[in-house]
Amino acid sequence: MAMTMTETLSLAGIACETNTGIRTLPLSSEPSFAYWQQDIPPEYWELGAGELVERVAVARGKLGSRLIVLGHHYQREDIIQFADIRGDSLKLAQWAAGHPEAEFIVFCGVHFMAEAADILSAPHQKVVLPNMAAGCSMADMADPEDVYSCWEELEEAGVADRIIPVTYMNSAASLKAFCGKHGGIVCTSSNAPAVLRWSFDRGEKVLFFPDQHLGRNTGVKTGVPLDQMPLWNYNRPYGSLGGMGEEALERARVILWQGHCSVHQRFTTDQIRAARERYPGINVIVHPECRLDVVQAADFDGSTEFISKTIAAGAPGSQWAVGTEINLVSRLARENPDKLVFCLDPVVCPCSTMYRIHPAYLAWTVESLAEGRVVNQVTVDEETARYAKVALDRMLTVV
Ligand code: 13P
Ligand code: SF4
């Protein structure tokens, strides 16, 4: 059979494993705007898993060292098997910035990651995203127009010149450019505390978008009191100043954009309590996109690369309850058979947008490249790329 039911559901909703079988959940945070993806030739949907693997291998053989495949840790197994380099968003961005040798970079991840790779790679390199519909619902929560009008309000309130804008890597290239233009910087989950310290060396306040949880968790780690981290509600109508009021703005050290990741918001302290009750002494490790109470109740938190390395370095027989995306957690369980590794959430859902990178799209992409046609190239216009690179380069020097 060419495709499983789970695969066919990937654009309409998501099929999740539960303790009682498979059920379909709606995409609670479906992007407000989807990136455009052309239909791929129907023959690709007829191919079975083995044929897809073979065709990708043949096309890669033709391209040789001209092609490199990058794979984010959340990619499904039938994609990650093709990745030359696996990593978190920082590691993959660093790779793209430091390897001008490959002509084609096929990025198995989501749109903002491919954009960052395009900005950081050399001009002769082409970055390809196998499915343009692979966006990030959190990144979409910071619509550039909303961020610009927030900044205008901050200017009118007379505080913008005391604020450093910090955008999480999970954001559009135009927002990275905005940060580059306004003395700001990009961060990832690996370097957010260092980026916040960099920002406080240069400004009194930070505007942090789009993830309120990473912003709050990082603020707490760097000693900012919770009452100095008000939320900027971008949902209209919010009244003025994102609904926070002048007093809160004056007191604010970190202004948090009201965005979140729907995958990581599923994790709760009840799940942590249940894991600890069932397995006394278990290690709980979560991604910092989880809520503050979850991060504080965990033993460790960090990026997907940090989670992978920490579990790999764990003692044989150690036990790990993990608060992050299920494709990564399942892989860690398989790759660490001497340890107990499981997901904190009993209804384990993949990231629905990462999941859109299907082997049929990858086969179409690499076969097209092997035939001399570049499809699904992700390009950032020159002006945006120039300023976004300023903010990305600042980030790379802070790491
Ligand atoms: P990492 O940078 O930790 O890989 O995180 C990216 C991401 O999208 C997590 O949801
Ligand atoms: Fe975006 Fe969340 Fe998916 Fe990461 S897990 S790519 S933040 S939707």
SSE blueprint:
Layout (H helix, E strand, L loop, with lengths): L4 H4 L5 E5 L2 E5 L17 H4 L2 H15 L3 E6 L4 H4 L4 E3 L1 H10 L5 E5 L2 H10 L5 E3 L15 H13 L6 E6 L4 H9 L3 E3 L4 H9 L4 E5 L2 H10 L9 E2 L13 H6 L2 E4 L11 H10 L4 E4 L5 H6 L2 E2 L2 H9 L6 E5 L2 H10 L4 E4 L15 H12 L11 H17 L1
Parallel strand pairs: 3-4, 3-5, 5-6, 7-8, 7-9, 9-11, 10-11, 12-13, 12-14, 14-15
Antiparallel strand pairs: 1-2
Helix pairs in contact: 3-16, 5-6, 6-17, 8-17
Bound molecules: 1,3-dihydroxyacetonephosphate and iron/sulfur cluster (SF4).
The site of 1,3-dihydroxyacetonephosphate has 12 residues, from helix 5.
Offer a quick outline of the entry:
The protein has 399 residues and is an alpha/beta fold. The chain is 40% helix and 16% strand.
Describe this structure as you would to a colleague.
- The N and C termini lie far apart (46 Å).
- This protein has helices at 5-8, 43-46, 49-63, 77-80, 89-98, 111-120, 144-156, 173-181, 192-200, 212-221, 246-251, 269-278, 292-297, 304-312, 326-335, 359-370, 382-398, and strands spanning 14-18, 21-25, 67-72, 85-87, 104-108, 126-128, 163-168, 185-187, 205-209, 231-232, 254-257, 283-286, 300-301, 319-323, 340-343.
- The protein is globular and about 65 Å long.
- The longest helix has 17 residues, at 382-398.
- It is of the alpha/beta class and 399 residues long.
- The protein has a 5-stranded parallel β-sheet, with helices on both faces. Strands 4-3-5-6 form a 4-stranded parallel β-sheet, sandwiched between helices. A 4-stranded parallel β-sheet has the order 13-12-14-15, sandwiched between helices.
- The structure holds 1,3-dihydroxyacetonephosphate and iron/sulfur cluster.
- 1,3-dihydroxyacetonephosphate binds at residues 73, 88-90, 170, 188-189, 261, 287, 289, 303-304.
